[in-house]
From TrEMBL:
InterPro entries: ComC_SSD, DUF7034, DUF7035, DUF7743. Residues 990-1032 have a biased composition (Low complexity). Residues 1097-1311 form the ComC supersandwich domain. Residues 1-27 form the signal peptide. Residues 415-537 form the DUF7743 domain. Residues 781-887 form the DUF7034 domain. It comes from Polysphondylium violaceum. This is EGF-like domain-containing protein. Residues 990-1036, 1083-1103 are annotated as: Disordered. Pfam families: ComC_SSD, DUF7034, DUF7035, DUF7743. The chain crosses the membrane at residues 1339-1362.
Length: 1379
C-alpha cells in the first residue's frame, strides 16, 4: 500500500540530479520487493548459500531525449544484479529485476545501484531506499541445520457451508521455533495420488491443502510425503485416517443438460454424522432435513466420479460423466457495406445472449421478440444488425445459446488504423470511506477508443474481473482523446491492470509494473505478504444459529497502517460466498471507537451448517481465503454456522408434469411443485410453435410444501391453429427467498424445471379437431410505411425520436401481439420500445414507438422491428437489412445528436436522510466552474444559495453540510458555458421540534462550503446563518406546484390537474406505454411493465430489463359490528365463479370493455356487477359529480354491489382489497405507506426502488343513488409479506348500511417515482447482486373492487436514469453512504 507514495517521496527528498563525469551523485532510487513471501522478512539462503531477491526499482534519470537503459549493476562484493525488464521516460527509469546475495551474517547496506544508458555507455549510480524513505538493506542468512522442520498441527476436511469439496483437506504445520525466516525452497508433495499446495502464514506457521486426484490408485498406501531440500522428508498419514461415514445414494440420480456441462441431482444419506467420504466432485448442497440427509447438485464433464474408501480402494458412483453437451449453433451474415453493419443470422430454440467483446462481463440476455424474424414450425429464425467500424477487415461475432459460439466475417476496410490506443493518464479522486472515482485518459488516432477494462476483485478471490469504461463513461473530450470516469470500490492504494481497445480491435495492455512506473499504483503481492498487515479479526457472533431465523453478523478486522493510510489509501472489503451463484462484497467502514474495520451482513435462515467460506480483499489485491485467516487467527476467524433444523438453499422444483387434456380443454397440464420449505409463488409460461410470446400464469401455492396445480391455456376454437404447446418458462420462490428460474433449453445452472427441460412430457399437440376454422392464409403481416422523426420534450435533456409504421394483413393483425422497435448503436447497445396502436382503420394498423435515447447512445442507430403477428399466428420480424429491402423509401438508419455538452443531474443521495454529505451524479461537471444552486423552501419562506462543491469530478459532485430545509430545488450550472441542468426537487428532513424552524432557513455561504478540504470527512462545522427575507406563511393549496413552472399542470381545489402526458399527484410523472389486456373470464387485466437498468456489479455497458408484477385483488367482504373491528360475517371471493356478460353498448373503438357478475350465496343473493374498461386514448368520464380524466393506457374497473343482508343497520360492510408489487431484481429497496391528504381521500403507496404502485381511495361513494362519505383504512391480514423485492398490503373500504346498492371508486397507478424507496425511512433493502431474473413478458393480473384506474406512469427525470446502461455503481454507492 506504500508504493503509490513513491512520487511523493521523490518530492519530499528534493532529489537533485548532478552530473559529474557521466555519473549521477546523491540520487536515490526506491526499491519495491516483488514475489516476497512475507512482508519485511527475507528468506534463508539456498543450498549454495545464495539469496535471490526480486525487485522493482524506480529512480530519477535524465535521458535528454536519447539513449535507453540496458542493464543494472552494483559495486558491493558478494552482490550481483540482473535486469529482466526496463522502463524509462525523460525523467525516470524503472527496472524489474533481481539481486543475488552471498550469505553473510553482516547486512548489506549503502548499496549503490547503477544503470547504464546506450547513448554514452556510462553507469549512473543512486542510493537505494525503501518506499518509506529509509535506507535499503538486506541480510542473507544461511539456513541452519534443523532435525524436525515441521510438526503437523491439524488436518481437517474442506466441507464448508456452501459446497462440499470432500476430496480436499486443509491443514497447518508448526515450523521449528529456531527458524526466523522463510525457507528458500518450496515444499513439495511427492505423490501420484495427491496434489498439495503450501502457503506461509508467518515464520512459524505453514498452511497446506491436499486433494485426491481423479485417478486415485492408492499407490502410496495412504502416506503423504512432504519434502523440502533444506530438511529431510516428512511423512504424514492422509485424511483417510479421519473417521468417515458411509454414504448411500438414494433413488439414483437425475442427469440434465446445462451446456457445456452436465448437471446431476441426487440425494445422499450418511450412516453417521461423521466425515463425508472423499468424492472427486464439487458438491453443492441444496436441501435436507440434516447434514446426514442432503440433496446435492453437481455440474461436471469428462469425469469418472469415485468414492475413496477408508482402505484406499475406490468405488465408482453415479456414472461416467461424458463430455459436455453443446448446442451446435451455425452463424452466418450478410454485409451492408453502405452502412457498415452485418446482418447476423442463425437458428435456435434457446434464449440467446450476446457476450461483450474483450471482457468477462455478463452477456446481454435478449428477450422476446428481439431478433426473431420467422418461425418454421419448431425452428426459430433470428436476424439482427451488428455495426462494425470502417477500419476493420475482420469482424468477430459471438452468440450464447447458452454455450457460446463465435466466428469471424471478412469485410472491406475503408480506413487504415494500425496504431493501437494509448493510456494517457490515470488518477483517483476519493469520494468517501469506501469508494473513489477512477479517471482514465485514453486516446486513439483514427477509429477512437472503444473500451477500457480495469481489473477489479469482485466475484472471485483468485481472479480479477474486468470493469468496463466505454463512451458512456466519457466525461470530457472525444473518442479520439478523452477522459473517462467510473466509481470504483477502493482508494489510493490499489493494484490492477488496464487494457485499452479501439474500434479497429487493436489494443494495448498495461500490467501492474507498468502502471506502477507511470502512475505509482501498487504492485500485486501474495496473500501471505498481505497477511502480515492483518493484526486482528473476529466475528460476532461466530457461531450463528440459523435454524429458525436469519442472523445479523458483524465481522471485525484491523490493518497495520498509519492514520493517513487509513483515511486516504487503504480499502478493505469482505467477500461473502453464500453459494457459487450468490457472491457479494461488504465494504468495510472504520469504527473509530473500536479501532477496527467493521462489516455487517445477514446470514439467511436454514443455511447449510458448517464453516462459512469468505475472503478478505485489501486494496484490490487477490483475496485472502478464510482458511488462511483461520490458520493465523484460529477459531475466532472461523464463522461456524449452526443449523439443527432443515437445510434449504434450493428453490421449489417441478417434481411432476403430466398432460391432462380434455375435448373441451385440450391444453391442460397437471404440475406438482415441491420444496422442503413452504412455496410462496409460482409463475408458469406457455409458448407454442408459432406463438413464442405465449402467456404467463401466476399461481398461488398458499405456502404448501407440495403444490399440485392444474393449468389450462384457454383458446378460441375460431382463432386457433393446430400446433404444439409446451412449458417455456418456470419461476418459483419459497418463503425463505430461494428463487429459481428456468428458460426452456437455455439453462446453465440448477433450475426448477431441470427434470423436464429437454423432454417432451409437457408437449401437447393442438389438432384441427379443436380448431374449427380452416386457415387458408399463411402469409404474415406486411409493412406498408415507415418513418423516423425527432421529437422534443423540454422536460428532458435526452434526444427523443418516434418511429411510426403501418401494418396490414390478409386476415387481421393481432392486437394481442404488440411489436417492439429496437435501435442498435455502434457499441452494439440495444434500446427497445414497445409499440402502441395509434389506430386501426379497415384492417390497417398504425403503430408508434417512442424512444428516449440514453446519453452517449449512437451516433448511428439502426432500427429493427420484431413481434408482428396476425390472428392466426403468422409471424414476422424485420431486421435493419430487411427494412431496407422492403422499400427505398424506408430508411431505418437514424443519427442521434450528441449530448456531450449537456449538464445533467442523473441521480442524487437523499437529503431527507442525511445533510452532512450530499452526492450528485450526472454528467457535464467541470472542476473550478461548476456551481450547485439550492433553492430552499421552509416554513418561514424561501432562500437560494450557490455552493461550490467540495469534490468535483466529471460525473460526481460532493457537498458537505447542506443547510436544513423542508424542500430543495437543485440545479447544477457550468459557469463557463452557462449550461444548466434541469431543476430537481428533493424533500428535506422533517423538523424535530418547533425551535428547529429557525434553523431550517439557515444557509451556508459558498465560501464556507468551499473552504473545506476536498479530502476531509463531512463534519457538522457551525456556519453563520445569513439573513433571509421572510414572508407571512399562507396555507398551501396543494402539496406541490404541480409542475406549473414547467407546464406540467396546475393546482385546483387542493389537487393537481395535470396536462397530458403528465400525471401523478404532483404531475412530475408521465404516462409510459404498457400492454394492458382485459381477461375474458374474470374481471382482471394483464399488464406488462418493465424498465431498463444497468447491470449488476462492476462498471456496466450492458442493460437489462427489470420486470414488475403488480397484483391488486378484491379478496373478501366483511360485515363489521357497529363499524368496529369485530367481524360478524366474512365472504372470500372465488375467482372461478365470475360470469362473463355480453353488452351491446360498448361502441367506443378507443375503449375495450368487458362485463362480469358475481353472486354471493346469501339470503339476498348479493350480486357484484363489474365493468372493465381499457382506454387507448384520453377521455373524460364522470363519477358522481366529479369529472375524471382517463389517460391512454388506463384501465377502469367499476364494481356495483347490490343489496346486502346486514345483520343490523348499525353495521358496516368492509371490502378487503389486496395490493402487492413484485420486482424480479434481487438487489433493491421497498417500502409502503398509507397517507391522508388535505381532501377526504386516502392514498396507498407501495414502492420497489423507483417503481411505485399508487392507490387513491376517494372518500366518497355512490350509496343508494347519492354521494356519501366512506372511510378507507389499512387492514392487518395474516400472510402479508414485505421484502426488498416485494410488498403486499390489505386495504379496507368501509361502507355504511345501504339497502339498494353501493358504488365505490378507488384507483391505482404504477409509477416511476422521483424518489427511490432506498431514500425512505422504513424501507427494506438488500445490497448485493443476485443472478435471478424474470422473463421480459411478466404478466400482472389485476383484480380490484370499485372503480379502479391503473396508470402506467414514468417520471421523466428518473425515467431517463432508469433507461441508462452505464453507471449502476451510483445506486450501490447511494446505499453505502447511508451505512
Amino acid at each position: 500500500m506504500d508504493t503509490l507514495r513513491v512520487f511523493v517521496l521523490y518530492i519530499f527528498l528534493s532529489l537533485v540530479l548532478l552530473f559529474n563525469g557521466g555519473r549521477v551523485v546523491d540520487a536515490q532510487s526506491v526499491v519495491i520487493p516483488t514475489n516476497s513471501i512475507l512482508k519485511g522478512v527475507e528468506q534463508y539462503a539456498d543450498s549454495s548459500n545464495k539469496c535471490l531477491f526480486d525487485f522493482f526499482i524506480k529512480g530519477p534519470l535524465e535521458l535528454n531525449g536519447a539513449g535507453i537503459l540496458t542493464q543494472c549493476s552494483v559495486t558491493i562484493p558478494g552482490l550481483s544484479c540482473l535486469a529482466h525488464e526496463v522502463y524509462f521516460n525523460n525523467t525516470h527509469y524503472g527496472i524489474r529485476g533481481s539481486f543475488q546475495f552471498d550469505s553473510n551474517v553482516v547486512p548489506y547496506t549503502n548499496i549503490q545501484f547503477g544503470v547504464t544508458k546506450t547513448s554514452d555507455v556510462l553507469t549512473y549510480q543512486s542510493s537505494l531506499v525503501n518506499p518509506d524513505g529509509t535506507p535499503f538493506s538486506y541480510t542473507c542468512e544461511a539456513m541452519p541445520t534443523i532435525a524436525n522442520l515441521l510438526v503437523l498441527k491439524d488436518l481437517v476436511p474442506n466441507l464448508n457451508a456452501q459446497f462440499y469439496q470432500s476430496n480436499y483437506f486443509s491443514g497447518t504445520f508448526n515450523i521449528a521455533s529456531t527458524l526466523t525466516r522463510p525457507l528458500y525452497y518450496d515444499f513439495l508433495c511427492q505423490s501420484t495420488d495427491y496434489q498439495c499446495v503450501f502457503q506461509y502464514i508467518d515464520v512459524h506457521t505453514l498452511a497446506f491443502t491436499i486433494n485426491y486426484i481423479d485417478d486415485f490408485k492408492n499407490l502410496d498406501s495412504g502416506n503423504v510425503v512432504i519434502e523440502n531440500p533444506a530438511s529431510s522428508s516428512i511423512t504424514i498419514r492422509n485424511s483417510l485416517d479421519t473417521a468417515q461415514a458411509t454414504v448411500s445414494f438414494d433413488n439414483g440420480f437425475t442427469e440434465f443438460k446445462i451446456p457445456q456441462l452436465w448437471g446431476y441431482y441426487f440425494k445422499t444419506t450418511l450412516s453417521t454424522a461423521g466425515q463425508f467420504p472423499p468424492l472427486n466432485l464439487f458438491l453443492e448442497p441444496l436441501f435436507g432435513s440434516s447434514v446426514r440427509d442432503l440433496t446435492f447438485f453437481v455440474r461436471a464433464a469428462s469425469t469418472i466420479p469415485k468414492l475413496i474408501n477408508p482402505d484406499g480402494t475406490t468405488t465408482s458412483v453415479l456414472k461416467t460423466i461424458d463430455i459436455g453437451p453443446t448446442s451446435n449453433l451455425i452463424l452466418s451474415s450478410t454485409i451492408d457495406p453502405q452502412e457498415n453493419f452485418l446482418n447476423i443470422e442463425f437458428e435456435t430454440n434457446s434464449r440467446f445472449s450476446i457476450p461483450p467483446q474483450f471482457s468477462d462481463s455478463p452477456p446481454y440476455y435478449t428477450s422476446y421478440p428481439f431478433g426473431l424474424t420467422s418461425y418454421d414450425g419448431y425452428k426459430r429464425h433470428y436476424r439482427f444488425p451488428k455495426i462494425y467500424d470502417t477500419s476493420l477487415s475482420v469482424v468477430s461475432c459471438s452468440v450464447g445459446v447458452p454455450d457460446v459460439y463465435g466466428t469471424t466475417f471478412i469485410v472491406t476496410s475503408t480506413t487504415n488504423d494500425q496504431v493501437p490506443p494509448t493510456l494517457d493518464s490515470l488518477d483517483l479522486i476519493l469520494l468517501n470511506e469506501t469508494h473513489s472515482v477512477l479517471r482514465i485518459g485514453a486516446s486513439d488516432d483514427v477509429s477512437g477508443v472503444f473500451l477500457i477494462t480495469v481489473d477489479i476483485i469482485s466475484q472471485d478471490l483468485t481472479k480479477r474481473h474486468t470493469g468496463e469504461l466505454t463512451k458512456n463513461h466519457l466525461v470530457s473530450g472525444t473518442k479520439l482523446s478523452g477522459v473517462y470516469e467510473s466509481i470504483v470500490p477502493f482508494k489510493k492504494s490499489f493494484t490492477t491492470t488496464v487494457a485499452i481497445y479501439d474500434y479497429a480491435a487493436t489494443s494495448t495492455q498495461y500490467d501492474d509494473v507498468t502502471l506502477n512506473f507511470r502512475f505509482g499504483i501498487d504492485l500485486t503481492q501474495s496473500s501471505s505478504y498481505q497477511l502480515s498487515d492483518v493484526t486482528e479479526l473476529y466475528f460476532t457472533p461466530n457461531n450463528p444459529d440459523v435454524t429458525s431465523n436469519a442472523v445479523d453478523v458483524v465481522f471485525y478486522c484491523n490493518i497495520s497502517q498509519t492514520q493517513l493510510q487509513r483515511e486516504e489509501y487503504t480499502s478493505v472489503s469482505l467477500m461473502l460466498i453464500l453459494s457459487l451463484n450468490n457472491i457479494f462484497n461488504v465494504f468495510g467502514t472504520y469504527n473509530q471507537t473500536a479501532g477496527l474495520y467493521q462489516f455487517p451482513f445477514t446470514l439467511p435462515v436454514s443455511t447449510t451448517p458448517g464453516n462459512f467460506r469468505y475472503g478478505l480483499v485489501i486494496n484490490n489485491q487477490y483475496g485472502i481465503e478464510s482458511s488462511v485467516l483461520i490458520s493465523k487467527f484460529g477459531n475466532k476467524a472461523n464463522l461456524n454456522i449452526v443449523n439443527t433444523g432443515i437445510i434449504d438453499v434450493s428453490p421449489p422444483i417441478v417434481a411432476q408434469v403430466t398432460q391432462a387434456s380434455t375435448l373441451e380443454s385440450p391444453l391442460t397440464w397437471h404440475l406438482l411443485f415441491e420444496d422442503i420449505s413452504p412455496i410462496k409463488k409460482v409463475i408458469v409460461g406457455i409458448s407454442s410453435e408459432y406463438d413464442m410470446q405465449g402467456k404467463n400464469f401466476t399461481l398461488d401455492p398458499q405456502n404448501q410444501n407440495s403444490f399440485q396445480a392444474t393449468l389450462t391455456y384457454e383458446i378460441d376454437p375460431a382463432k386457433c391453429r393446430p400446433m404444439k404447446y409446451w412449458i417455456s418458462y418456470i419461476y418459483t420462490e419459497d418463503v425463505l427467498g430461494n428463487i429459481g428460474e428456468s428458460v426452456r433449453y437455455s439453462n446453465t445452472n440448477f433450475h426448477p424445471f431441470f427434470k423436464f427441460d429437454y423432454s417432451n412430457a409437457d408437449v401437447i399437440s393442438l389438432t384441427s379437431a379443436y380448431c374449427t376454422v380452416n386457415i387458408l392464409e399463411s402469409d404474415p403481416p406486411q409493412l406498408l410505411a415507415l418513418t423516423i422523426a425527432t421529437t422534443t420534450n423540454a422536460s428532458i435533456q435526452n434526444v427523443q425520436a418516434q418511429v411510426n409504421f403501418q401494418v396490414t394483413d390478409g386476415t387481421m393483425v393481432s392486437e394481442d401481439h404488440l411489436p417492439v422497435c429496437y435501435f442498435t448503436d455502434i457499441d452494439n447497445q440495444v434500446l427497445s420500445a414497445v409499440a402502441a396502436i395509434v389506430n386501426n382503420v379497415a384492417g390497417v394498423v398504425n403503430y408508434k414507438c417512442d424512444f428516449i435515447f440514453p446519453f452517449a447512445f449512437g451516433p448511428k442507430a439502426l432500427l429493427s422491428i420484431y413481434g408482428l403477428s396476425d390472428i392466426y399466428f403468422n409471424y414476422i420480424g424485420f431486421s435493419t437489412l430487411d427494412l431496407k429491402a422492403i422499400s427505398p423509401s424506408f430508411n431505418p438508419v437514424y443519427t442521434v445528436a450528441s449530448t456531450i455538452s449537456e449538464v445533467v443531474i442523473e441521480s442524487t443521495s437523499s437529503l431527507e436522510e442525511a445533510l452532512d454529505v450530499f452526492y450528485i451524479y450526472g454528467r457535464g461537471f467541470k472542476q473550478g466552474s461548476t456551481v450547485v444552486q439550492l433553492q430552499m423552501d421552509t416554513s418561514l419562506g424561501s432562500s437560494s444559495i450557490d455552493l461550490t462543491p467540495n469534490i468535483t469530478t466529471g460525473s460526481v459532485l460532493v457537498l458537505y453540510n447542506i443547510p436544513q430545509s423542508l424542500e430543495y430545488r437543485v440545479k447544477v450550472t457550468e459557469t463557463i458555458s452557462q449550461k444548466s441542468s434541469l431543476v430537481l426537487i428533493l424533500k428535506g428532513p422533517l423538523p424535530t421540534d418547533s425551535s428547529s424552524s429557525t434553523s431550517l432557513s439557515s444557509s451556508a455561504s459558498s465560501e464556507s462550503q468551499s473552504s473545506q478540504s476536498s479530502s476531509s470527512n463531512p463534519t457538522n462545522t457551525p456556519v453563520t446563518p445569513t439573513p433571509i427575507v421572510t414572508q407571512t406563511p399562507t396555507p398551501p393549496t396543494c402539496k406541490s406546484d404541480c409542475g406549473a413552472s414547467l407546464g406540467y399542470g396546475v393546482c385546483k381545489n387542493t389537487a393537481c390537474v395535470c396536462n397530458s402526458p403528465h400525471s401523478g399527484l404532483d404531475c412530475l410523472s408521465t404516462i409510459a406505454k404498457s400492454s394492458i389486456e382485459p381477461n375474458t373470464h374474470k374481471p382482471s387485466v394483464n399488464v406488462t411493465f418493465d424498465t431498463r437498468t444497468s447491470s449488476s456489479g462492476g462498471n456496466p455497458t450492458n442493460t437489462k430489463s427489470t420486470q414488475f408484477s403488480s397484483f391488486i385483488a378484491l379478496t373478501s367482504i366483511n360485515e363489521l359490528e357497529n363499524g368496529g373491528d369485530t367481524i360478524v360475517s366474512k365472504h372470500v371471493f372465488n375467482n372461478d365463479k365470475w360470469i362473463s356478460i355480453e353488452s351491446n353498448s360498448d361502441d367506443d373503438p378507443n375503449v375495450k370493455t368487458t362485463h362480469f357478475k358475481y353472486i354471493i350465496d346469501n339470503s339476498l343473493n348479493t350480486t357484484i356487477l363489474s365493468t372493465v374498461q381499457v382506454f387507448s386514448q384520453a377521455k373524460t368520464i364522470t363519477f358522481g359529480k366529479q369529472k375524471l380524466e382517463m389517460n391512454p393506457s388506463t384501465v377502469k374497473f367499476t364494481f356495483n354491489i347490490t343489496a346486502y343482508p346486514f345483520a343490523k343497520s348499525t353495521n358496516t360492510l368492509q371490502l378487503i382489497m389486496s395490493a402487492s408489487l413484485l420486482s424480479d431484481q434481487e438487489v433493491g429497496c421497498s417500502y409502503q405507506e398509507f397517507i391522508q391528504d388535505e381532501t377526504d381521500s386516502q392514498y396507498l403507496k407501495i414502492q420497489i426502488d423507483q417503481v411505485a404502485l399508487f392507490g387513491r381511495f376517494i372518500g366518497f361513494g355512490i350509496i343508494d343513488g347519492r354521494e356519501d362519505t366512506i372511510t378507507n383504512s389499512a387492514v392487518d391480514e395474516t400472510g402479508t409479506k414485505q421484502t426488498s423485492k416485494s410488498q403486499q398490503t390489505f386495504i379496507g373500504l368501509n361502507v355504511r348500511y345501504f339497502k339498494q346498492y353501493a358504488l365505490l371508486d378507488p384507483d391505482f397507478s404504477v409509477l416511476i417515482d422521483t424518489k427511490s424507496a432506498s431514500d425512505q425511512e422504513n424501507s427494506i433493502c438488500t445490497s448485493e447482486p443476485s443472478s435471478s431474473k424474470l422473463t421480459s413478458a411478466q404478466i400482472a393480473g389485476i383484480v380490484v373492487g370499485g372503480v379502479v384506474f391503473l396508470f402506467i406512469i414514468a417520471a421523466v427525470t428518473i425515467y431517463v436514469l432508469s433507461k441508462k446502461t452505464y453507471n449502476p455503481t451510483i445506486l450501490k454507492l447511494r446505499k453505502l453512504t447511508k451505512r
